[in-house]
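Researcher: First entry.
Model:
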Amino acid sequence: MKKSIIALATALTVVFSANTIQAKTNNAESTAIEMADAQLQSVYDAYFKVKDALIKSDSKLTSAKAKDLLTAITAVKMDKLKSNEHAVWMKVVKKLTADAKSISSTTDLKKQRESFKSLSKSTYDLIKVSSPTEPIYKQYCPMADADWLSKEKAVKNPYYGSSMLTCGNVVETIK
């Protein structure tokens, strides 16, 4: 009887230990996924702030927000990204960085908007493989022959600001 109780106690200890290890592993995996999502989310959030500054046609604010975008880009830890995001990140990171630097280093609105075209393309490639927490709208302006991304479905054109604020349309919804 005593041996049976000891065997049962040992078995229960092993089962509880295995469950605890499994729970800790699951928590670590969840935390790693949340960190990867948060890293790219900070890049996306900074991109949207650059876009909003361009909508206002505020070149100084655009430059400042592009500096914040640079900070977000350099803070990304590639080894924490999901494999599909990592592959795209490796393709676009140099261009993202160059475009953000270009926008941040000038207060010439025309030059900022030109660099924003390329920045939008790279950001689109990246967000397309991510799993955005909310729908993202790819919008297109035929006058500028350029796309941009927006959290809102309503068109607010960063290429022309108030002079042609609603020029454009939604061409894709990314979910």
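Researcher: Second entry.
Model:
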Amino acid sequence: MRFAGALSMRSAWATVLFLLVVPVFFVATSSDARADFRVCNATQNLVGVGIGYRAKTGWVTEGWWHIEASTCKTLIEGPLSSRFYYLYAEDSERGGRWDGPINMCVADKEFKIAGVTDCVARGFQRAGFKEYDTGEQASWMVQLTDEPATDGTAAVTGTNSQ
């Protein structure tokens, strides 16, 4: 009888352990796509990147993210809350840039700036950002490349990263 009781007790513990471990395993190995805004640097140089977006409190620009050659960085973690995002990037070695027609504020050092008007009067610089319409996707990826675009400028492409 003792043997049967011990065997029954072992089975009960094994069942409890199984029920605790299996859900943790499936959560840990889940391959769900992560939602975020990523920038990939497909060049051979270090690139500095700034991003602009509309928050609940108004326009915000943030930077600088330093992205090494042939790597990616996440600028905004989690599902995107805006449809439009704006990007400005500079090649720190060759001096080129990826820009656009939308003027926003930047600074020499790390920054998070509220508002996009009167940049110079407020002690910042003004830079032209390129607009990305994410179509309200949960995540987005922009790839910076050396390839010239049709207008002769460096190409910047954005895609839904799911």
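Model: Note on the second entry: The longest strand covers residues 58-67.
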